[in-house]
Every structure is written in structure tokens, then in C-alpha cells.
Amino acid sequence: MKRITTEYTFRSAWIDRPLRFAVCSDLHSDRFDDMLDTFSRCDAVLIPGDLVDRHRRDNRNAERFLETVPEIVPVFYSIGNHELKYRHRETFLQKAEESRVTLLDNGSMSFHGVRIGGLSSTWSKVPDMAFLDRFEQEDGYRLLLCHHPEMYRDYVAGRDIDLTLCGHAHGGQIQIRGRGLYSPGQGLFPKLTHGLHDGGKMLISRGMTNGAKPRIPRINNPCELIILHLEGKED
């Protein structure tokens, strides 16, 4: 399946050295070896959910990702709906905890002046509000991994968070004149499927793959790897 690379640059006085991140959303336990060279030229890989695919018989590629990629580059990983609903969830997340990946389950970590947080998917659809309250008080450039664009819309927008990275919508599956046809969580003709929103405070990936059981094929909507550049004001 065709995949494009899209690059975005954001500037902030909090950034004291240029940083380059690969945003790897919605891999769904697909192959990733063709991305290793790109990953190696980044400062870190950011996964805003759905590294696994709950519909697959096994998630060996996701497990191999945990073993392989953090040996090349730091990886920050937050929990999406497929991790939440995966039947072997506890076993898989334990492997993630034991790997060199930084699993951000409603938690945050400082990385070269950037505070990277992970807002986990929940059964109730209401996120951990206490974590959000804490996270927006952290020092540094606040970069949030939040799998669901609709969760950003309902619970994150308006907070003092510099940039939120989302996925989940798969670009709306079928793009008609730049607008998606369907997205889980948003239904028909969703407004939040890809690109920048909310004055540049939310960036949505089209996703790296289509998943094991796509209900709707992709048309006019390639998969996407995002390269995110963070630079200081004077750069």
C-alpha cells in the first residue's frame, strides 16, 4: 500500500536544539523494516497508539518492533484502542514495559527539553483528566500523544499543551475533495482525519497502514509517515 512522508516544522523558545521525530501511528503490527533507515536518522520515534492490531491472530511484528527499533533510536509509545481491546493486552504491555521502549500510559517523560506525554485510550471514552491537569503544568515544550482526534476535541483543546499528535481516523478511509468518508469515533464525513487543526495545536496522522480488517478500503488516501521537526525560535 502506498505510503507518503509528510514533514512539519514547529518552533518554540523551549526548544534548545533542533529535534527530528518520526510519528509512527496505526502501524497495526505490519512490517516496518523499510522504515528503519528513516528511523535511524531521527532523534526519536513517537507512536500515538495502535502498534498492535487486535484482529490479528498474532502480533509478531509489533513484538519485533519492541525488540528492534529502540536498539536504533529512542521510542515513546502511548496506548490506543487496539492496545486497550487486545485479548493479550496485559502480556503485550508487559513486554513493552520490559523493552527499551518508553511506554507512556497516562504519564510523561522529559526528552531534550521536550515533555512528551501519553494519554491512554479508555473504555469509558473519558481520558485521565488528572493526568491532563498535571501534564499542562509541566515545564518545557509539551508534546502529547493522544490516539483519538475526538478525544482531543472534547478534552484537550483549550489546554496549555503546545502540540498533540493523533491518529485513529486512518485519513477518513476514502478521501473526496480532501474530506474523509468515515472514521471510528466520528462516523460519516468526519472533520478530523488528517493534517493540522485547531490553529496548529493538533496534528493527525493518516496512519502507517490500514489494519488487518479494514471495513472500508483506502481511496485517494495514502498511508503516512510524519516527520516532525521541532526548532528553537532563533533557528
Notes on the structure:
There is one protein chain. With 235 residues, the protein is of the alpha/beta class. It has one domain: Purple Acid Phosphatase, chain A, domain 2 (4-Layer Sandwich). Helix content is 19%, strand content 30%. The protein is built from six helices and 16 strands. The strands form four sheets. The protein has a six-stranded mixed β-sheet. The protein has a six-stranded mixed β-sheet with strand order 6-7-8-9-15-14. A two-stranded antiparallel sheet has the order 10-11. Strand 6 and strand 7 form a beta hairpin.
**Architecture (CATH level 2) name:** 4-Layer Sandwich
Summed up, the helix count is 6
How many structurally independent domains?
1
- Structural class comes to alpha/beta
Short summary of the structure?
The chain is an alpha/beta fold and 235 residues long.
Could you list some keywords that capture this structure?
six-stranded mixed beta sheet, 235 residues, Purple Acid Phosphatase, chain A, domain 2, globular
Present the secondary structure layout.
Elements: E1 3-11, E2 19-23, H1 36-40, E3 44-48, H2 60-68, E4 75-78, H3 81-85, H4 89-98, E5 102-104, E6 107-111, E7 114-119, H5 129-135, E8 141-146, H6 149-156, E9 163-166, E10 175-176, E11 179-180, E12 182-183, E13 187-188, E14 195-197, E15 202-204, E16 223-231
Parallel strand pairs: 1-16, 2-3, 3-4, 4-5, 7-8, 8-9, 9-15
Antiparallel strand pairs: 2-16, 6-7, 10-11, 12-13, 14-15
